Amino acid sequence: MGEGQGEGAYSRSTTVQAFTPTLSRSDVRWVLAHPTTMIGSDGSPSVEGKPLPRLYGTFARVLGTYAREERLLSLEDAVFRMTGLPARKFRLIDRGLIREGAHADIVVFDPQPGWPAFFP
């Protein structure tokens, strides 16, 4: 490891990533229940082709588990917290919402159960 890096972290260029699973499911529910919580992933693409499963699985878990199954938030609210809310917070003009004149960043998905994210 490079100088100044703790155990469980690695460096690639100037980026340091640490993986520390510290939230329980009840903690996650508590955080997601707050209306200003944005939803994102700490997973990073991997040059080797094996990214951390959370890179893609975070969104499927929130939409499937917390929106569809547990109804902690609506599907529409979950999608907004992944798109429109972060765009607004980070002042990304014409992003995060579908409207005339905005950039068309659209993902179409089946809201029914899908595949879980895991290392093969």
Summarize this structure briefly:
By secondary structure, the protein is mainly alpha-helical.
Give the proportion of residues in helices. 25-40%
Order of helices and strands: EEHHHH
Mean pLDDT reading: 78
Radius of gyration (Å): 16 Å
Shape: globular
Structural class: mainly alpha
Beta-strand residue fraction:
5-15%
Secondary structure tally: strands: 2
**Largest sheet report:** 2 strands, antiparallel
Outline the fold blueprint.
Elements: E1 9-12, E2 15-18, H1 25-32, H2 54-69, H3 75-82, H4 84-89
Antiparallel strand pairs: 1-2
Helix pairs in contact: 2-3
What are the defining features of this structure?
mainly alpha, 120 residues, two-stranded antiparallel ribbon, 4 helices, 2 strands
Can you walk through the features of this model?
This protein is mostly helical. The chain has one domain. It is built from 4 helices and 2 strands. The protein has helices at residues 25-32, 54-69, 75-82, 84-89; strands at residues 9-12, 15-18. It has a two-stranded antiparallel ribbon with strand order 1-2. Helix 2 (54-69) runs antiparallel to helix 3 (75-82). Mean pLDDT is 78; it is low at 1-17.
